């Protein structure tokens, strides 16, 4: 029994020694021929091959990922440049459209001016409007420097044909003027029913309505009749369009007269350019 243990140790040591020598022989045996793999090399490659392959594939995947990242960064930069270019072109298109529409409105004003003779009317842009319909005032960008004076008539284009009355100048500065609108309760103008020549006084009522007052209850007035200036107030030339009749009150609501509602010919909500008459009269 005591002799078995040292013999066993000696046997194990000899086994390890021969095994090591065998591995060395297998490895170095591959140096004899470069075209062939030795048994040792085959054993080593079989064990280390999968690990090397995984490492190589991992490196390839990382390179592809980095290339895709750089590509996407370039695409995003290009997209941002394109977005900026589109925004610029949209702004240019909006300006061109605005210029086109303004040109159309000015052409319509030119038609109005052709019906007038005397001094050339002054074209002005509306630069200030009231927030509420009860405020019957607007601000225009022409004033004393353009020979604008208080009480001068202010006109605009209307789809009815003749020049439509906007109001009259009430206050003037060098480069600006304040215009009292036709619909303001403090505005009044001598008027005629164009068809029957019945006469009355047109007053502003606010909320884009006017009242034709002092018209006889027996007067020949119908709905949709056009109302024009009479030229008898010394301010507005004769024949300027004021509006059309939208409602006639029945009976005698005010003694010998009956009031008549008139809708202005000018659309004050869309008013952007006007004509200020210096000293003119219609043909």
Automatic annotation (TrEMBL):
Superkingdom of the organism of origin: Bacteria
A Gene Ontology BP annotation from the UniProt entry: regulation of cell shape
GO CC aspect terms: plasma membrane
Any coiled-coil regions, as ranges: 72-99
Residue intervals of the Rod shape-determining protein MreC beta-barrel core domain: 126-277
InterPro entries: Cell/Rod_1, Cell/Rod_MreC_2, MreC, MreC_beta-barrel_core
Gene3D superfamilies according to UniProt: Rod shape-determining protein MreC, domain 1, Rod shape-determining protein MreC, domain 2
UniProt keyword list: Cell shape, Coiled coil
Matching PANTHER family: CELL SHAPE-DETERMINING PROTEIN MREC (PTHR34138)
Family assignment from sequence similarity: Belongs to the MreC family.
Record's function text: Involved in formation and maintenance of cell shape.
Protein name: Cell shape-determining protein MreC
Organism: Thermodesulfatator atlanticus
